[in-house]
Amino acid sequence: MSEFVNYLMNLVKTKNPNEPEFHQAVYEVAISLSLVMERHPEYRKEKILERMVEPERVIMFRVPWVDDQDEVQINRGFRIEMNSAIGPYKGGLRFHPSVNLGILKFLAFEQVFKNSLTSLPMGGGKGGSDFDPKGKSDAEVMRFCQSFMNELYRHIGPNTDVPAGDIGVGGREIGYLFGQYKRLKNEFTGVLTGKGLNWGGSLIRPEATGYGSVYFASEMLATRGETLEGKKCLVSGSGNVAQYTVEKILELGGKVLTLSDSNGYIYDEEGIDREKLNFVMDLKNNRRGRIKEYAEEFKNAVYTPADPGLDYNPLWNHKADCAFPSATQNEINGKDAQNLLKNGVYLISEGANMPCTPEAIDLFLDAKILYGPGKAANAGGVATSGLEMAQNSMRYSWTREEVDNRLRLIMKNIHKTCVDVAEKYGTPGNYVNGANIGGFIKVADAMIDQGIV
Ligand code: NAP
Q1: Residue bearing the CA closest to ligand 1, atom 44
Q2: Tens digit of each residue's pLDDT (9 = 90 or more) over 216-234
């Protein structure tokens, strides 16, 4: 480990104990940036990275609400306003029982680099709550969202901080949050993205993260003169990102074999076709059911329940060409990475944020496969949120084709940035270095321009 990485990690661990995901995210970036610090002493002198690991602002608040049984419930709400050097804070809200300060700091930290890579003027932020929307009625979700916004509205705004969705926060939740914000502020503005199409949302925003991850994969394959046509793909998750990842893979002629949720996964040897994907979308978005029901509907598919006693995830242990982890952080560990490589997988495009452990990433980099880190591969979601903000400011809507073309171009440019930067810093083909360094430079230079703030 270089002296710089050692020093930074000591600092971060001492100041932020018990936040292992945040340490992990900073560590990955620090390794890449040690290459930059050697060439650019000004970044060390200005203590840019030391400043970037300290959120500009952390807001933490009580969210009381009353459930359908008339019982009082108390959750915790957060917003991490990480970095606003290149634009208003921008990043999703996550509602999941695992949410805590460390997880949101890791997500907010990564968001800063990701947003910079999109080339749009967006700073980085992230927020959410340990509230679990699973199993709650629509009325309960609404009451929770209203209570959450009763505090959050003071801290956000179209030119200050613009939240969006993430795990557990989809169109329904954004609707309730937006309604309450509008009521409190008496303003109809683009304060949230992922809005409904009738009230300021952008076409392609729901699809954007999944589509973008597949566009990024296509760009990586193109460097080897290949396409997705006929490729066997493993996809995890069955939420927003997973669904539109499958849709785009199918459009480009690939074959999808798996999907999952937190209870288990399905393997469909015949492939998940359009009709089966429609079933999944209805199951997950309307009926809010479990992926197990896929195997009850389509008898050829095999359902395997999650086994917490296993030290690997069997979803990643099937013969395939490409993998699209699209569920959550650390879903691919070292053993999973070995299984993927053993089964012939040579492309990973991360729809999820930080789905691979550092051990898994090292194995992929050593094997020199096409490994697209989330900061780059899943940036299409926030990029299209940026396009939603632009349309809101103009009070105008672009067509589906216009937004999709812009998304495709942004993904192409992010890919090119990663390739060029990795090459410039002497590590050709290393998309991790490309994304980390490519995202860093713009933010770092803006911070220097703006003085010590
Ligand atoms: P989502 O619609 O809520 O879906 C999440 C999926 O992942 C569900 O199938 C969920 O299963 C599964 N999952 C969540 N936590 C899990 C866990 N601890 N173990 C196993 N499975 C788990 O969320 P999403 O928007 O698709 O987000 C998925 C990933 O993409 C996250 O890492 C998110 O940060 C990242 N991402 C999202 C966007 C976006 O625009 N939405 C943009 C960039 C990155 P259950 O239903 O059983 O929980």
Answers
A1: 352
A2: 999 999 999 999 999 999 9
pTM over 0.85: yes
Residue 91 has pLDDT above 90, yes or no: yes
* Ligand 1 contacts CB of residue 133 (under 6 A): no
The pLDDT-based confidence of 1 (bands split at 50, 70, 90) is low
Judge whether 165 is annotated as a binding position. yes
| Dihedral pair phi/psi, residue 10, rounded to 5° | -60, -45
Instruction: Provide the sign of the torsion angle of the four alpha carbons 106, 108, 112, 117, taken in this order.
Output: positive
Q: What is the pLDDT of residues 283-323, one digit of tens each?
A: 999 999 999 999 999 999 999 999 999 999 999 999 999 99
Query: Is 260 among the annotated ligand-binding positions?
Result: no
Domains and CATH numbers, the chain: 2-188 (3.40.50.10860), 208-368 (3.40.50.720)
Put the strands of the sheet holding 232-235 in their side by side order: 255-256, 232-235, 322-324, 347-349, 370-372
